Structures are given as structure tokens and as C-alpha cells.
Amino acid sequence: MLAEYLPVLLYLGVATGIGLILLGLGFLLGRGRKYGEKLGPYECGFEAFEDSRMKFDVRYYLVAILFIVFDLEIAFLFPWAVTLEDTGLTGLVAMGIFLAVLVVGFIYEWKKGALEWD
Predict the structure, then answer these.
(1) Cα–Cα separations (whole angstroms), residue 62 to 3, 113, 116, 118
(2) Which of 45, 46, 95, 100 is most buried, by CB atoms within 10 Å?
(3) CA nearest to 102, candidates 59, 80, 70
(4) Cβ distance 21 to 14 under 8 Å?
(5) What's the distance, CA 76 to chain centroid?
(6) In this predicted model, what pLDDT tens digit does every residue of 57-102 receive, in sequence order?
(7) Model's pTM, two decimal places?
(8) Which residue ranges make up each domain of the chain?
(9) What is the rounded radius of gyration, in angstroms, for the C-alpha atoms of the chain?
(10) Confidence grade of residue 38 (pLDDT, cut at 50, 70, 90)
(11) Which fold has domain 55-118?
């Protein structure tokens, strides 16, 4: 049983070792000079306007959710495309329904004006 997990454990050990070595080298060889501009807040190159607890426009979240939905769509399309020969017509119809639902949702959001930044 250990022989089955040995490649995975070896991979995790090598990845952890490389990560620790790179972090250690960065810590040892880094200059570490701290000054005001380096320690200041950064977001789009502008200083903070108001309190950090100010309200955001809900459209920001709608666009973020749309991005996640369509990003996940692409994540589902790659394995489907690879196994299309195995899934056959059933897989084609299922993916067609999946894409149709997403397109209808996208059109709904577009008509509601969720993608406009007026």
C-alpha cells in the first residue's frame, strides 16, 4: 500500500523542499530595506480615499461572480473535450444543456445591466 503512495509523497517532499529553499534564499539574500513607499498601501497606484469599511457597489460583486461562473465553465469544458469520444452523444447533449443554461443566464445579466459601469 505504501508503494502506491510513494510517488505522491516523494512529489510532496520535493515540492516542500524547493519551496522552503526558495523562501530561505529570499530571506537571506533579500535586501530588506524598509521605507515609507514600500510599506505604504497599494491598490491601483492610488492612496486610500476613505475608511476601509466603506461600501462597494454591488455591481463589482456581480461582475466578480460572472467571472467565476465563466471561469468554471471553461474548467468543465476541458475535461469534457478530452473525453468526448467516451461520453458520446449523451455527453454532447449534457454539455449543450449546460452551455445553454449559462448563455441564458449571461443574456439575463446583460439585459439587467449588470455589466455596465455607469
Answers:
(1) 48, 10, 11, 14
(2) 95
(3) 70
(4) no
(5) 14
(6) 676 777 788 888 888 888 888 888 888 889 899 999 999 998 899 8
(7) 0.47
(8) 1-30, 55-118
(9) 24
(10) low
(11) Methane Monooxygenase Hydroxylase; Chain G, domain 1 (1.20.58)
